[in-house]
Fold each of these.
Amino acid sequence: MKKLNRILVLLALIGFVGGGLALAPEPADAQMREFTGRIDKLKKKKFIVDNRMGDKVSFNKIDDTEVTGEKDSWKKLKKGDWVTVSWKFIDKPRKAYKIVVLPDKEEAGAEL
């Protein structure tokens, strides 16, 4: 009887842990981060974003980098553009997977 109870408890535990793992998000989705700021430096394959609060973060452009928003290509980006960059926390060095170009800060508050 004790052996049967141990087996049932073990099976229940395996089912509980296995079911929890099936519902867990994919590691790539859980590790995605965003950083918003102004482009401080822009080179052929690398750029630095300054969030104007003391943080400057560098990102590398990859072949699959997607540019959306106010501009639609890497070649149209310039120093001073406000952007939100999506990157994976595990990347060393940071890779820019998606860049959303935002309206200039002056234009966003001009209608008030």
Amino acid sequence: MAKVTRTSGRGTKKRATDTKKKSTFSGDSYKEYQAAKKKAAGNRSVTTGRGTGRRKLSSIPDPKPRASTKGKARVTGRGTAKRKSKG
């Protein structure tokens, strides 16, 4: 496909990428990646709350599927109008 220049780091970095490459930080592939990283972490713990608490990485809940927005109101037009969501 076409090459696209993407900027990052507050506009200080540029890189050329291909448009047919899918994002690796969304969808089912990322959820599988998260599960593998959680399993690899095992019983490690991280500090929380300015170092006052600890939490095991194995106790973090799995990500939930996104709730459906079908039939709910969606705001459009700078907040001046709304319509029912189709999907």
